[in-house]
Each structure stands twice: as C-alpha cells, then as structure tokens.
Amino acid sequence: MNCPMCTRWQDEPELRVAELEHCYVQLNRDQFFPGYCLVFAKKHLTELFHLDPATRAGLMEEVNGVAAALAEVYRPSKMNYELLGNMVPHMHWHLVPRFIDDPLWPRPIWSEPHEEKTLNPSDYQEAAGRIRRALGL
C-alpha cells in the first residue's frame, strides 16, 4: 500500500502538532490560510462507518477539539471542515480557519490557484505550540 497519510507523521516531523488517541494533527505545509491543519486517523480507514460507534464518537470529538483550538488561536470568521478522500483514500480532515479578508473568501480554498506560503522551521514550531496549548497539551 502506498498511502501518503499512513507515513505522513514519520515523514514530516517538523509539521507535527499533536498525537491524540485516534488521530494525528499536523500543520499543512502551505500556510496560505494561517492555521490550516490536517487531522488524520491513525488507522488506515476510508469511511466513518468503518468505525465502531465509540471509536467514531471519540475521533469526532478529537476533530472538534482541534477545530475549537484553531478557533481559539486564530479567531477566524469561519472554520472550514473538509473530509473527502477521493485523491488520498485515508480518512483525514482539512481544518481551515477562514477570514472575511482572505483572498478567496467566501469561495472554497481550491477555487483558484494561489502561491504556496511556506514558513521557516521556527514559525511552524511556534504555530504548533500555540495549537497544542489551546488543546491543553
């Protein structure tokens, strides 16, 4: 199996935010949308209905907790949640804080190309630390 999400935690340690019971949380390398994170299931799954009810509830609470932490840190106008899996068939959410003054507001983040915004390592660490603190970790 060649799944980029299954190895992402090991492959990109500089983007790590938190390891939770059911999922991993990492910053998206492209921070064009400040605070953009990926939350991905530890197990290789493709659908919520593949999980037993207790695990599904636990996973959704973790996604919700990350969204709340991002809202606390970034104070967005709206939090976008996206769970697709068409291109990468491993359950993962794109959590994207959105702001009324962002260049693509109110359109979807993929509505038009944008120049990728990468940060220096200390800025990724600082952002991850702020999110971890908001998570209570």
Describe this structure in words.
A motif (Histidine triad motif) lies at residues 90-94. One of its GO terms (molecular function) is catalytic activity. InterPro entries: Histidine_triad_HIT, HIT-like, HIT-like_sf, HIT_Hint. The chain has 137 residues and is of the alpha+beta class. It has a single domain, classed as HIT-like (HIT family, subunit A, 2-Layer Sandwich). Helix content is 33%, strand content 19%. It has helices at residues 4-11, 53-74, 121-135; strands at 16-19, 23-27, 37-41, 78-82, 92-98. A five-stranded antiparallel beta sheet has the order 1-2-3-5-4. The longest helix is centred in the middle third of the chain and has 22 residues, at 53-74. The relative contact order is 0.21. The model has no long low-confidence stretch (mean pLDDT 95).
Our Rg estimate from Cα atoms comes to 14 Å
Order of strands side by side in the largest beta sheet?
Answer: 1-2-3-5-4
State the order of secondary-structure elements, H for helix, E for strand.
Answer: HEEEHEEH
Mean pLDDT score, rounded?
95
Helix content: 25-40%
Q: Which CATH architecture is right?
A: 2-Layer Sandwich
Q: Give the C-level CATH assignment.
A: Alpha Beta
Q: Outline, from the CA principal axes?
A: globular
CATH H-level superfamily title: HIT-like
Helix/strand-derived category reads alpha+beta
Return the domain count.
Answer: 1
Q: What is the CATH topology assignment?
A: HIT family, subunit A
Q: Give the strand content.
A: 15-25%
Q: How many extended strands?
A: 5
InterPro entries: Histidine_triad_HIT, HIT-like, HIT-like_sf, HIT_Hint
GO molecular function, one term: catalytic activity
Organism: Trichloromonas acetexigens
Domain HIT: 3-105
